[in-house]
Amino acid sequence: MSAQTAGPETLGHLSEEPPPVDPNSKQAKTITGKSPLRIAFGRLARDKIAVVCAAVVLFFVLVAVFAGAICSIFNVDTETVLATTRVDFLNNGLPLKGPPNHGFDPAHPFGVAPNTGNDNLAFWVYGCRTSLMIASIATLFASVLGVSLGLLAGFLGGPVDKIISFFTDFFLTVPFLLAALTIAPIVSQRFATSPHYARIQLIDLIVVLSVFGWMGIARLIRGEVLSLREREFIQAARVLGMPTRRILVKELLPNLVAPIVVSISLMLPAFVAAEAGLAFLGIGVTSGISWGQTINTASNFFEVYPLFLWEPLIGIVALVLALNLLGDAIRDALDPKTRR
Amino acid sequence: MFAYVVKRLIAGIVVVFMVSMAVFLLFWYGPNEPARPLCDQQTSNHCDTARLARYTENLGYNNPVLSEYGTFVKGIFVGRDMTIGTKTRPCPAPCFGYSYRTTVPVWGEMKTRLPATFSVAIGGASLYLLFGIPIGVAAARRRGTVADKALVSSFLVLSSIPYYLFALLTWLYLTVIFEIPFLSDTGYHPFTDNPAKWFSGLLLAWIVLGIFGCTQYTRYSRGAMIEALSEDYIRTAKAKGLPARTVVYKHGLRAALVPIVTIFGIDFGVLLAGTIFTERIFDIQGIGFWSLQAVTAKDLPVVEATALFSAVVLVVANLLVDVIYSVLDPRVRLS
């Protein structure tokens, strides 16, 4: 899609790529036009690690989307009616059936949590939903904010660039963990009694993540725009009298697809990790279901009930690892020069 | 050079001023009853409307916001008197208010916690610099070999795992399950009391921080080194017959260190501002853990003070980085 607007240098560079299809087949002989994104996608599809990671990510996305259905298939629920029917309070609140001491319990495939008697599978599935939902919404907001500020700063230059760059540097100096830590008590003080506290906490988390997550992409886009705006096709558009907004959206944006896709794919795992980390510290999702929160509870029971900790831990590690490696593969596919 | 430093200094002061203003306003307008946590604490949860009104008045929440900000700033420089409960107490020079939870001046408690955070930060950072840069340089010199590829991909996987999970698992296995004798007693013991205990309490935190930082610094220094080694002057140095060691360390590493210094300065600032996860997991009573406990207890002055403290530390770190950078790379200050 950006081939039409890209300069001649880009096209020349792309034509140096070896043909992706087998040279012996007949199809290889016919030359077809391919957009840079399709070339990149082809490279990605041949990268085994990327395919495996994409499958893992897809699995988690499906779990998150169909959380309710999965729970009803296994006949489990996030609600616990009577904890005493599931856990033994005389024995440190450990479960009566299932892991860690009583083998496998088909009613609760992942076991139940000590003390509260909550079903681990239901909490795992809904924890996955919380994690992916917060991370993807925050990524969306952060990248929209970052891309638009980066575009404006790079293209307009002058005082606009100065102001935006100042704020970029300013927000970069504030570590987001500290910001989340500072805002958490205020939100809990103000809204703790509100009936929508869980939802307010989610919104607060998304706002903090996006407000402290846009700077990297803004910087990157600004740098790209600075070099792109001197190119012939932008000058041509200006000479033709195209309005600034149209130049930004129709001419510049399509040329920035690669850096945007790369930033987004690396932002997502960072936000998944951050969400769980905050919940682990007790300043993120505290009145909902989150993997980080389960890990925090489970680390106290690790000696007697390691499975309880391993379940959410494997969830986070697998999701973050797969997203990170996939992001890395996407970067390599979009920009072959950085290949290791 | 002098003009550049002054310019950066002024910018730094502006940022500190902005952050202090932002934090103050956040804590002024954020909570709907800012005096409530103190009132609850002081009256053991028998805080009625009259008492709350008195606490609100005593803490200055009825005065105009700007004059209270003035009092707050003045208190930081010259100290002031504060009325907590029924008594008026002095709050000496860097006055950040009284902790709601323990009713001692915030700065006094912060001073006792600074050594713990600094010990963790300095130990961890020196470990990852000491290992990260040489490993990165070695990998860059052997670029493309099997060893290099194995190292890069294993470090990529390791650094993709969230830090706190890595730290938590290490702590759980080494101290709870296996109870390794020298490592398992994690926590902070003042160096002056018992240096051996200080060392053994922090060792595990250092190692974990070191390993994790090492993966990142290896990547940075490998990248910077590859770039530096592909420069023309390296070829010239090789061509005139300099020994490989001189070429790599004197001509290559010196150029490669410039970006690493920048990243390290900011990273180290973040560490000094509070290693929250490390302190929480290894039970080290530093700034990070303290602010976390304050958040749970709604101890607003402590949260406010730690936020300000970390902002100042980060601004100073940034300033130092800029100055060092301008010494290492004169092009920066001339542009």
- SSE string of chain A, helices as H and strands as E: HHHHEEHHHHHHHHHH
> How far apart lie the N and C ends of chain A?
27 Å
- How much helix is in the residues of chain A? 55-70%
Total beta strand runs of chain A: 2
How many structural domains can be distinguished in the coordinates of chain B? 2
Mean pLDDT of chain A: 84
- Ranges of chain A with pLDDT <50 over ≥5 residues? 1-16
Name the poorly predicted regions of chain B.
Answer: none
What is the CATH superfamily classification of the largest domain in chain B? MetI-like
* Percent strand of chain B: under 5%
**Number of distinct helices of chain B:** 14
Provide an overview of this structure.
The complex is a heterodimer of chains A (about 350) and B (about 325). Chain A has about 350 residues and is mostly helical. Chain A has 14 helices and two strands. Chain A has helices at about 10-15, 35-45, 50-65, 65-75, 120-155, 160-175, 175-190, 195-210, 215-230, 230-240, 245-250, 255-280, 290-300, 305-335; strands at about 85-90, 95. Chain A has a two-stranded antiparallel ribbon. In chain A, a hairpin with a 5-residue loop joins strand 1 (about 85-90) and strand 2 (about 95). In chain A, helix 4 (about 65-75) packs antiparallel against helix 5, helix 6 (about 160-175) runs antiparallel to helix 9 (about 215-230) and helix 13 packs across helix 14. Chain B has about 325 residues and is an all-alpha fold. Chain B folds into two domains: about 1-90, no CATH class; about 110-330, MetI-like (MetI-like fold). Chain B has helices at about 1-30, 35-40, 50-60, 65-80, 105-140, 145-160, 165-175, 195-230, 230-240, 245-270, 275-280, 285-295, 300-330, 330-335; strands spanning about 80-85, 85-90. Chain B has a two-stranded antiparallel ribbon. In chain B, a hairpin with a 2-residue loop joins strand 1 and strand 2 (about 85-90). In chain B, helix 5 (about 105-140) crosses helix 8. The N and C termini of chain B lie close together (about 10 Å). The mean pLDDT of chain B is about 85.
